[in-house]
Write a structure and sequence with these properties.
Elements lengths: L2 H9 L3 H7 L12 E3 L10 E5 L8 E2 L5 H7 L2 H17 L4 E3 L22 H17 L3 E7 L12 E3 L2 H8 L1 H8 L4 E4 L3 E2 L2 E2 L4 H11 L5 E3 L8 H7 L10 H5 L4 H9 L1 H5 L5 H9 L16 H9 L4 H17 L22 H15 L1 E5 L10 E5 L17 E2 L5 H8 L2 E5 L16 H9 L6 H10 L2 E7 L17 H11 L3 E6 L14 E4 L7 H9 L33 E3 L8 H7 L16 E3 L3 E5 L2 E10 L5 E10 L11 E10 L4 E9 L5 E3 L3 E3 L3 E10 L2 E10 L1
């Protein structure tokens, strides 16, 4: 559909029909996260949006590993395949728009939503972003990059104002979104937080200025659910679509006879009580600082209608928003004459191969697993007897709490999978279950979760005895992160650290499997034989773990730095996190994650990019060649082991002294490669010119002239070769 045809379509609409396309509604079937009703008389069909990014949140679906695990794979091609599978499942269920990928940089190591994000590094984040978007779009679904921008903590996320300088914003927090836009993301979701005092749903500078004018984004800007605050400001700030635009009662009414009755009766409205009685009860008993104010709703409903009638908002401004929403329809092939995405149009629902998607989830979980430490115990031979210990080892760790939660099509627990592979297995829980959180937990939810976690079979002495009697002890530990709240600390919840220590004292052949949303403390590290990080592995959790423990080379490398304590991180201090007086100051600037550890010379527990292999890789003399947009490095890599393995060649850029302080090294490029036993290959790594640049508020992206070191490395702290190039 041409722009002219779209203009004519908008001109035929009434104001009421236009308002129906800029304000989300409840899905009549109660399955989509939100929906648009369309305009039936003009041939504009309903549009359905569904939560991602780790699986379709509608009934049973494939629960893929956490986005953080995809970041840990360092393999954009794998992220693209997962994105394509996610998009296909969304389309098969009748949805059009996937609310993902999540692209916020991991700034705070305890952020409750870190598992939904790829990395602490902007270049790795951008690579996963572009690949995920391309994959979703290839299946005929639309991708939504979220949460734009600087949504780096869940604590006070619905009101905190981020004080961040332009350079830091450009170098760290915007690149992932820019990559998503370049890859064709049809929608961008604004964050709950404020930036420099302005709500992101009405941030003219960043939405209209950076996103639209600089990057050329012509897609749809959508609010997070109940993330709108002012009608006129949101209109002028660049928001196109308010979601959901209805109260929670209306949103969830299709799923409940009682809620439908309450919505129909509107008792508070009839009695003139505002806010409604039920909403006052929610605020008092359920709401907390991590959740948005879910009432009132519909800033693009009656309020926008009145603003147009009074002349406060021009109807032409509404028309522009409707045109962008129709552009989303057009990209999906839902309007006559529309072009179709490469994977087919939204009018076609692909058939999903559930077995193939389960296998993909298993592969992604293996590839995202990071072998943090290994004294030679792994891989196991299969002849060993095992003591499987851990509060939740008999259940798959599907994901975290919140809008990314998926009801898995099937699950494989560590216990079940290891029973199929080991010569003999005993199981002891050891300590109380770690209860899984959910979105919109009330203030007393922590107490309820602990009560639910209380079990009669949690006996630490029995776990120690089982470990002592087994050839190998496998201790499965985890955290329980969720949207809406941050973790209290880097420590594992409950008595899990004490359990690991006790088991390790009883059996020096102890493997710890860490299912976490991000970095955790490991006070027992020196006492165990091996540690693997599996993040939130999804529905194939146990099968992937068994693959790794019995010889599948884990392809993962750390996408985040593991510090020894929270105080080691650059964000330590109330001013930087969680903020003071409603403002969080990004005083560390561009020195986030490994950049900050390098700046102050603190040794991390495990550095960014770290990961061991069952194979043995050697790096030869690399060469650098100027390319159209930067440099290309050719790195000879040899697998000198008698087994296959996967290596991630990492290249860091170290700048010369210049007018401003810069990180000692930043990731410039990388490549993941699988090599058979004895195989050798020249691996090509592209380092774009932007990797040499810094952002200057007056000059824009600037490359300081001089000699730059290119560091070929296995992690940010494990440099294998260094060469110098001249940049201008």
């Amino acid at each position: 559909m041409t722009d002219g045809e779209r203009d004519r379509l908008v001109a035929e609409m009434t104001l009421e029909e236009k308002l129906g396309l800029v304000r989300g509604h409840a899905d009549p079937a109660g399955r989509a996260t939100g929906a648009l009703p369309g305009v039936e008389r003009l041939g504009v069909p309903p549009l359905r949006l569904v939560d991602g990014p780790m699986g379709v949140r509608d009934g049973r679906a494939t629960a893929f590993p956490a986005t953080l695990a995809l970041g840990a794979s360092w393999d954009p091609a794998l992220a693209r395949r997962v994105g394509a599978a996610l998009g296909a499942e969304a389309r098969a269920k009748g949805h059009h728009v996937v609310l993902g990928p999540g692209l916020n940089v991991i700034r705070v190591p305890t952020c409750g939503r870190n598992f939904e994000y790829p990395s602490e590094d902007p270049r790795l984040t951008a690579a996963v972003a572009a690949a995920s978007v391309a994959g979703i779009r290839s299946a005929g679904a639309a991708a939504t990059a979220k949460h734009f921008v600087a949504n780096n903590q869940e604590r006070q996320r619905d009101g905190v104002s981020v004080v961040v300088d332009e350079r830091t914003l450009r170098e760290l927090y915007l690149p992932g979104f820019r990559a998503a836009v370049a890859a064709g993301a049809e929608a961008v979701m604004t964050a709950y937080n404020r930036v420099r005092g302005r709500w992101m749903s009405e941030h003219t500078e960043l939405v209209e200025g950076v996103l639209r004018e600089e990057w050329g984004f012509d897609g749809c800007v959508v609010s997070d659910w109940w993330g709108t605050h002012d009608t006129r400001a949101a209109v002028e700030g660049g928001l196109d679509l308010e979601m959901p635009g209805v109260s929670p009662l209306e949103l969830y009414a299709p799923r409940s006879h009682l809620l439908r009755a309450l919505v129909g009766l509107r008792p508070s409205e009839r009695a003139g009580i505002d806010p409604p009685v039920l909403w006052r009860a929610y605020d008092a008993l359920v709401g907390d600082e991590g959740q948005p104010d879910l009432y009132p709703a519909a800033y693009f409903g009656d309020r926008l209608r009145r603003a147009v009638a009074s002349g406060a908002v021009a109807e032409a401004a509404v028309d522009r928003k409707v045109e962008r929403v129709l552009g989303l329809y057009d990209a999906l092939g839902l309007l006559d004459g529309a072009g179709k995405p490469s994977g087919g149009s939204a009018g076609e629902s692909p058939t999903v191969d559930a077995d193939a998607h389960h296998d993909l989830a298993r592969e992604a979980a293996v590839r995202g697993t990071v072998l943090l430490d290994n004294d030679g115990l792994l891989p196991l031979s299969g002849a060993e007897s095992l003591a499987v210990v851990g509060p939740n080892a008999d259940a798959a760790k599907v994901g975290g709490g919140g809008s990314s939660a998926v009801t898995p099509a099937r699950t494989v627990s560590p216990l079940a999978a290891l029973r199929e592979r080991a010569s003999g297995v005993t199981f002891e829980r050891g300590v109380a279950r770690v209860a899984e959180p959910s979105l919109f937990d009330p203030p007393w939810a922590g107490t309820v979760r602990r009560l639910r976690g209380a079990t009669t079979d949690a006996d630490p002495d029995a776990a120690v005895a089982a470990a002592a009697d087994a050839d190998v002890a496998v201790v499965v530990v985890q955290d329980g992160a969720t949207e809406g709240e941050d973790r209290d600390s880097l420590a594992l919840p409950g008595d899990q650290d004490a359990l690991v220590a006790a088991v390790a004292a009883a059996n020096d052949r102890t493997v710890v499997v860490c299912r976490s949303s991000g970095p955790v403390r490991m006070p027992w590290l020196d006492d165990v034989a091996a540690v693997v990080a599996t993040w939130y592995p999804g529905q194939a959790d146990g099968a992937a773990l068994a693959d790794v423990l019995y010889g599948a080379d884990p392809g993962g490398r750390l996408p985040v730095t593991f510090g020894r304590r929270f105080a080691d991180y650059p964000v330590a201090g109330d001013r930087r996190y969680p903020g003071v007086d409603g403002h969080v100051h990004y005083d560390e600037g561009v020195f986030v994650g490994y950049r900050g550890f390098d700046r102050v010379g603190v040794d991390p527990l495990f550095p960014f990019g770290h990961g061991r292999s069952y194979a043995a890789f050697a790096c030869g003399d690399a060469s650098a060649t100027p390319a159209d947009d930067g440099w290309r490095l050719d790195v000879p890599v040899a697998n000198d082991a008698d087994r296959a393995g996967r290596e991630v060649v990492q290249v860091y850029v170290s700048p010369p002294d210049g007018p401003v302080e810069r990180p000692a090294r930043t990731l410039g490029g990388f490549a993941s490669v699988e090599l058979a036993a004895g195989e050798r290959e020249r691996v090509s790594v592209s380092v774009p010119r932007r990797a040499f640049a810094r952002y200057d508020s007056r000059e824009g992206w600037t490359v300081d002239p001089g000699e730059y070191d290119l560091l070929v490395a296995r992690s940010s702290r494990d440099v294998r070769e260094r060469m110098s190039v001249t940049a201008e």
